[in-house]
Amino acid sequence: MYGILQSYLLSWIIFGFIKWVDSLTSISRWNIITPFPVWAQFLFFLVVHDCYIYFFHRWQHRNKYLYRIHEAHHSISDVDWIAGARSHSLEIFINQTLEFAPMILLGANPVVIILKGVVDAVWGMYIHSNIDVRSGKLQYFINGPEMHRWHHAKVKGNSVNFGTKFAFWDWILGTAYLPRPEKPASYGLTDANYPKGYLQQHRFAFRQMKSKKETKQIMHNLLFIFIFFPSVQEIQRGDSFFVAQDYQAAISVYENCLRDNPYSAEILWRMSRAHICLGDISQDEVKKGCYEEALTYSSQAVHYDSLNSDAHCWYAVSLGYIAIYEGNRKKVELCTQIQKELQKAIRLNPNNDIAYSIYGSFFRALGNVNWIERQLADLLLGGLPRGGFADAEIMLKKAIELAPNIIRHRYELGLVYLDWGKKEEAKKVFSQALSLAPTLASDEIRIKDMKKKQSEL
Ligand SMILES: [Zn+2]
Ligand SMILES: [Zn+2]
Fold first, then answer.
1. Distance 64 CA to ligand 1 centre (A)
2. C-alpha 224 to ligand 2 mean position (Å)
3. What is the CA(18)–ligand 1 centre distance, in A?
4. pLDDT reported for residue 285
5. Are 261 and 228 in contact (CB under 8 A)?
6. How far is the CA of 70 from the centre of ligand 1 (A)?
7. Highest mean pLDDT: which range of 78-82, 257-261, 309-313
8. What is the number of the ligand closest to the CA of 53?
9. Ligand 2 mean position, distance from CA 69 (Å)
10. Is the pLDDT of residue 214 over 80?
11. Which domains does the chain have, with CATH numbers?
12. Confidence at residue 336, expressed as pLDDT on a 0 to 100 scale
């Protein structure tokens, strides 16, 4: 009974969700797969989805959190044709959304969608059925009860036969197990505490997590899928204003996005970035206000998603700008924090050119601290991080390697060479930078400055 209700309700939710995604993105109007014959479409989705299911299923058995929504399927102690229907709703939601969304979005023939649904249902019954099929050599290619039975075995289940429709994934990737003609002694979970009721099993998947950090990690993943996804298009609209250097317009679009998704780190760090860029081109009286706003947004971004590289990067940038207005003791304190944030940003995304660029500027500032100041800072203020021009050069060169068309990276490298007394290198880098097209409104200021410096060199 529950099974029927569940599949009816879920298909309504899943198809509603996919249609909603389509209404936001209108991908289906491209009809990407429509020109291909029905049999080819069917075969394509059958193989691709089965490959996905193999890996996702295998991952579910390795990851203790993903396993929570898969346990229900393994809780059956008698493997028979109806058993395949037992699964946690969230597991069905994930798998069927990933199964049907591509078909609908790529514009598959409706016959393919119906046929796939029917084949799924029949196949599920077949591989769980209690019949004595002997498929011989076919078992290397097509999955059936002979193999799937062992996946439900109490002792073997976690490590073998993850395939659903095709068996070759298991044979190729070394997870196949088929000791013919034996059958497993018993089926089900080894955990005696696993509840029997349908609703209890659903709730059991969300039982107390081990630590706050682990809970946060899961929330991060869920937030990304369910909350961040809808606003992608709107965020892109804000980004296009940002690229066009209309920071006010970008901010008002992001603000709208934030109203719906106040915890989205992706929007929060963009807000921070837009405020920094706005501050860069504002009059001195309003600059500080912009940077303070940027700091508020980026600190929230880091708070809600500690695994987001851009959030850490823009948090470091805003701390750097705020440091300008602070006294020496606070400056030294901020230095340590900025370095930590930049290191995190790079660790989370080794291709974050902005993080490298800011790190370069950070080392340049350290390079400009003279020996006496450093001794004083060490003595009175708790010590400055190590580093100087040589480190700055490494970081900025890395930033240039990752993003060769950004004026800022080259401009900052030129400044390092100037401070370092390497005039020829500075000249060369500045002239390279001057040949690039501006991407930020503040590039105008940099270009002016470089031209002035070039003429003095
Ligand atoms: Zn399984
Ligand atoms: Zn099964």
1. 13
2. 29
3. 26
4. 87
5. yes
6. 7
7. 309-313
8. 1
9. 13
10. no
11. 2-207 (no CATH), 212-350 (1.25.40.10), 352-457 (1.25.40.10)
12. 86
Q: Which ligand is nearest to the CA of 87?
A: 2
181 cis-preceded (ω within 30 degrees of 0): yes
- Report residue 153: phi and psi, to 5°: -65, 140
Report how far ligand 2's centroid is from the alpha carbon of 150 (Å).
Answer: 9
Q: Which pLDDT belongs to residue 224?
A: 59
Which ligand minimizes its atom distance to the CA of 175?
Answer: 1
The sign of the dihedral angle between the CA atoms of 197, 199, 201, 203 is negative
Q: What is the pLDDT of residues 398-426, one digit of tens each?
A: 999 999 999 999 999 999 999 999 999 99
Q: What digits encode the pLDDT tens for the residues 5-37?
A: 777 888 888 888 888 888 877 788 888 888 999
Contact 276, 314 (CB under 8 A): yes
Residues 6 or more apart in contact with residue 128 via CB below 8 angstroms: 79, 80, 81, 82, 83, 84, 145, 148, 152
Question: What are the tokens at 37?
Answer: 């014959």
Tens-place pLDDT, residues 377-406: 666 666 677 778 999 999 999 999 999 999
pLDDT tens readout for residues 174-209? 999 988 778 888 888 877 778 888 888 888 887 765
pLDDT greater than 90 at residue 216 = no
Q: Which ligand number lies closest to the CA of residue 80?
A: 2
pTM exceeding 0.90: no
> Residue 225: what pLDDT?
57
Ligand closest in space to the Cα of 128? 2
Ligand 1 centre from 120 Cα, in Å?
16
